[in-house]
Write a structure and sequence with these properties.
90 residues
Length: 90
């Protein structure tokens, strides 16, 4: 049977492990949200450029994959841009 001191140490160790897990999850979540924020900024920049530069807009409408592959964004972000361009041109 464990004495109280050993039980206390075990409980402290368990709490430290839980705190470490929570910290790791926070870091991962922060990195994930940061990447989403960066993608949102890139999407905004592309759409603003399409709105203000007719030639870029024409190229984006004509060859969206070719243009969007130049940007380091996810397929989901590319789809958002393509849908937005289609909606704006209808």
């Amino acid at each position: 049977m464990l004495n109280q001191s050993a039980v206390d140490k075990l409980n402290v160790h368990k709490k430290q492990k839980e705190i470490k897990k929570v910290y790791i999850l926070q870091v991962l979540l922060r990195n994930y949200l940061s990447s989403i924020n960066i993608e949102a900024e890139v999407i905004s920049e592309i759409l603003l450029k399409a709105a203000s530069e007719p030639e870029f807009r024409r190229r984006l409408i004509k060859s969206p994959k070719k243009i969007l592959d130049c940007y380091g964004i996810s397929n989901e972000a590319k789809q958002v841009i393509q849908r937005t361009i289609v909606d704006l041109t209808q």
